Amino acid sequence: MSESLPAGFDVGETDRLREVGRRIRVEVIRAVNHARAGHIGGPLSAADILAVLYFHILRIRPEEPTWPDRDRFILSKGHSSIALYAAMALRGYFPVEELSTFDAAHSRLQGHPDMTRLPGLDMSTGSLGMGLSAGMGIALGARLTGNACRTYVMLGDGECQEGEVWEAAMAAPRYGLDSLIAIVDHNRLQQYGWPGDGPDGRIPPQQPGELVAKWSAFGWRVLEVDGHDPAEIVRVLEEAGRGDGRPVVVIAYTVKGKGVSFMEGHYFWHTRAIKPEEFAQAMAELGEPTTSTGGVPR
Amino acid sequence: MTLPLGRPMREIFGETVAELATEDPRIVMLDGDLGSSTRADIFEKAHPDKYLQMGIAEQNMMGVAAGLATMGLIPFISTFVSFAVVRPLDQVRLLIAQTGLNVKITPGYAGLFTGQTGMSHIIVDDISIMRAMPGMVTVSPADDVEARQVLRWAAAYEGPCYVRLVRDATQRLFGDDYEFMFGRAVTVRTGSDVTLISTGTQTPRVVEAAELLAADGIDAHVIHVPTLKPLDVGAIVAGAERTGRVITVEEHTIIGGLGGAVAETLSEHRPTTVNRIGLRDVYPESGPNDALLDMYGLSAARVAEQVRAILRPT
To answer: pLDDT tens for residues A70-84?
Structure first.
């Protein structure tokens, strides 16, 4: 393990990022339980990648969210917003306590990210397939204005069924936008899925290897990573940042519902209300003992 | 009376945005592979580094425009109305209108004049769609003089806007002293018998129709509404007060467009009978411009005929 660590990276940093991922998961479960609504499986699969982005990779100033030279991040799979909000809160964009307003009326933490409400969001998203196009525009705009920022866009694998994703995939290489880094949260489940011989009678949104072949064919530089190994995510994202003239896509292999045993790998935890006993078990598995199943205990 | 032909609005588009980009380095042109038709090629010659070909991928183009706008650039969009409004509607709604980003949606080929392309390219409901979209302003200039001013206004306006432009040369209504004012309607003929309200390049044909009606003893008041949203409520109400009878005329469906907007406004502010002349729930066919205007009742002679029939039912 240690021999794959990037230079200047130590086990302490790995542990820190792993702990951030755990905290994101705890906050996701708490907030969705409190709101009695919201997506769960996708936010949990994205948690470790978001931890690495917000605590190690992105050049950002949480106290100055509109800092012009900041790296940009777009959550194209906007339905995983609560994981992004948790990462931002833990990083200091706003108080962690505000996560209890998720999905509530008048909240800045809308069901899908709304850039007009919450400073620090670089685009409104929620209708799938759109984020990469906006990210391409940011990367192109950065080049035209002499801004050295990088632009990261996280997509879902189910989302890669949207046609617009492949419009952006066609267009971005023509501009050689190597500051544009797409990350596909490849958790191999979509909301309901195509019927077939997989778990719960559903098959994954893509065949094995399909995403690598497609993005490669469109002219992208393709990297692959275990999306739950913080040290590996750091290594691959740092590699992605060393541009070679092509836009980069990181295929991150993840598990939907990661971190909570009874949620892992089941499409029906895409979005679902959590029962009190399920909440207690989830918290216990995440190492966050709680005796309360109502409100947002902390 | 026949008005003289002006220059095609599409040429005005390419020239004016090129001039604007010389004045303001933030302006860029995004082209959905139609620059040789929309005349974004004029812009490309002047500013090759600011011309951004996006290919035949309009959903992506709208997203790229939104991203560029967040970086402080001012993108103008070159495509047809069909591929700027209906095809990438969700992208325009979420990434541009909801965000309030500074993108100029300025397609050519509005209305019936689409180079004999037919129902796939003739969009009859773009005003209805765009004026209903929260956060989007909608402007439809009458002629080349006004189009140039509207494009200059759009560049200075902070936020998303929809400006519908026309492919071919149409009648010039305004003189060089005309001044477009955003959000304001303009009286282009004064009369006392009936108030005709129009928008876009239909307005000059309505002015011609008013002269035909004058020969029949009908003295029409004509109001041009370049800004469909926000609508000039005061001018519409005043127009209704003046004659007590309102007829809208538009090269567009009568459902939800200018006619719909005027009827909504008068119903609330000054209940008045409103008749609507325009396209009636049809997908127009391809054909020469004059033939289409005649077929769909939008030539000056056909407008005059319908106004007469409304005012003097047999």
So the answer is: 999 999 999 999 999
Which of B30, B71, B73 would you mutate first to test chain A, the one with the most A CBs within 10 A? B71
Residue B97 CA, chain-centre distance (Å), reads: 18
Domain annotation for chain A: domains and CATH numbers:
2-285 (3.40.50.970)
- Return the amino acid letter for A77: K
Q: Does domain B9-163 have CATH number 3.30.70.2190?
A: no
The tens digit of pLDDT for each residue in A92-117 reads 999 999 999 999 999 999 999 999 99
Asked if A205 and A161 touch (Cβ cutoff 8 Å), the reply is yes
Q: Are A44 and A80 within 8 A, CB to CB?
A: no
Which pair of structure tokens corresponds to residue B175? 């003189």
Do A137 and A180 form a contact (C-beta atoms < 8 A)?
no
For B167, list phi and psi in degrees, rounded to 5: -70, -50
Find which of A75, A125, A130, A147 to mutate to test the B interface (most B CBs within 10 Å of its CB).
A130
Nearest alpha carbon to residue B237 among B268, B192, B209, B259:
B268
| ipTM beyond cut 0.90 | yes
Question: Could you tell me which CATH number the domain at B186-311 has?
Answer: 3.40.50.920
